Amino acid sequence: MSEQSSPCVILHSPQLGENIGAAARVMRNFGLTDLRLVAPRDGWPNPAADTMSAGAFDAGVSVKVYETLQDAQEGVTYLVAATARMRGIEKRVVDAAGAAQVVHGRAVGGAGVAGVMFGGEKSGLPNEAVALSDLLMTYPVDRDFKSLNLAQAVCVFAHEWGKLSAAKNPSAIPAQSHVTPVSRDGVPSTRDDVFRMFEHFEAELERAGYFFPPEKTPLMKDNLRSALIRADWTEQEVQTFRGAIKALALGRGKARVVRED
Prior knowledge:
alpha/beta, single chain, seven-stranded parallel beta sheet
């Protein structure tokens, strides 16, 4: 398999241990080893997952458990959300092959670690999770029967990743002939830095009375984050934007204001 940076797989609120284990198994089949669980319903470790994994955990699949999606994006610089429902959020939409191309291209270009996120069995990803993604991935399933098993959904992406990762020359695969390394002028920002920027921005907007009426605050924040995330931030850009937020809130030089908080 390729030694390029592989994406992590994030399972958001998975329910059945069997699905977690089956997802780990197919990940390992195609060279993916970083599995992150956000608030698994039945906790972790889970004996049912171990049984279904067919030894994937012993073979290299590591599991980390997080309470929130924000925490699970530790070190992630780009996020793909798998969803069967278009949410009215303006984002680029691709299929599994397209998502694998983007993720592989970023890995080859040294653009950090990507995360590929899947929702729980009951209702998929919540809107606030989709809003934080850079790219939406959807599969050409029948409109009258969109329900896809969680582990199977992971398998579809993992297979496409494996095709690119296993090939010494990706251009030799006709269906994947346009994988282009991502060229970066700066170091890509991690999700941790981007979240801190969001929180900084939102705190100042809250102070200014922007979020009104209160019941619309979550939707307004989702829309802001969805718009900002498309910038694909570098570390320097995040620092610059946070400096701009601070200047708008406090002023600079003679225009600086004193605030007790």
